[in-house]
Amino acid sequence: MQMNRRLVDLVFAGLVVAVAATAENTIDATRPFAIAVTGIAVVYCRRRWPVPSLILVTVGLMVTIVVQRPSQVLLFLTGLTMYEITLRTTMRRPWLCGLACATLLFAVGMIADPAQWWSLNSLGLYAWIGGGGAVGEAVRNRRAYIAEMTERLRQAEQSREQEARRRVMDERLRIARELHDVVAHHIAVINVQAGAAGHVIKQHPEQAGPVLEVIRQASDNVLREIKSVIGVLREDGEAGTTEPSPGLARVPALLDGLTGFDVVFTQTGSPQQVPAIVDLAAYRIVQEALTNAHRYGDGHATLTISYEEAVVTIEVTNRVQGHGDGSGFGLIGMRERAAAAGGSVTAGPDGGRFRLLATLPITAYALETAP
């Protein structure tokens, strides 16, 4: 694109010099030289400074009109600069510049040579300058139309991708619900058979074998169902891992991995053994909260983890510099994780800072009775 512009400027500059050397030729070489220099300056400055270029070429053309020898080169450049003004400036009414330019030139011509300028041919001045502006307006509208269509196509493609992802997520949620129903059924069978096994072992030990076999088969079915469905729910290209799920014990390692972000970490109370679902939810909430604090904050945050008798509390505060308002998808995900573990998450501005508070139960009974 830059090379094409340079080539066009070179062609225009050569045309200006050629016409100035022929049509503007006089005994004195001062006139064609001055017109050529003015024309070359306008050619190379019209894109960056279109309005000053129009002023320069208008003044030069006025001088040639006063001496009763209007320059054809400068007249051509008035239309060219008017084209650039309409195309490249943000004026709401660029045609006013063209009207003012043509009227000023016509007025000077009427003063310098009324007999020559008082004719219909003089109106061609308006047509030429206005035509340059009209062409610039047409090109600008076409570029705006192409840009708008390109943006619409991009948004349409993005919408299709989002719709496809949404449908995939809906299908995965449906599969997850079906998995829940199947696993719940098998677990209920295991629970009933385990109770029966305890009774049979006490009363008739020789009959315990079939009951334990039912428990084993039900357990195998549960593991098989979970393995198959988890394989479907896993993202494309996501490799399986044998590492244990992260928990609160790995929070210090998480903080050590942060770069360019200062976190003041405080832990109160004695760490306790918490259910796996709470441990994982707490770690993910800390991870997401610190990510948001890093993204929207000023590079500093405080993290407090408090172990109490029945709950663990996570608090993250930071000063807000971005546009986070507490309504993003990250916060929705944290609330869902907390709700799945029987807890809750509250977040929002608090005295010039953004504060996130998560409360999670650490007893199995609290999880069983959570809605």
From TrEMBL:
Transmembrane region(s): 54-83, 95-112, 118-139
Record keywords: ATP-binding, Kinase, Membrane, Nucleotide-binding, Phosphoprotein, Transferase, Transmembrane, Transmembrane helix, Two-component regulatory system
UniProt GO MF annotations: kinase activity
Enzyme class, spelled out: transferase
Enzyme Commission (EC) number: 2.7.13.3
Keyword Electron transport: no
Taxonomy, superkingdom: Bacteria
Signal transduction histidine kinase subgroup 3 dimerisation and phosphoacceptor domain span: 171-236
Catalytic activity: ATP + protein L-histidine = ADP + protein N-phospho-L-histidine
Protein name, per record: histidine kinase
Organism: Paractinoplanes ovalisporus
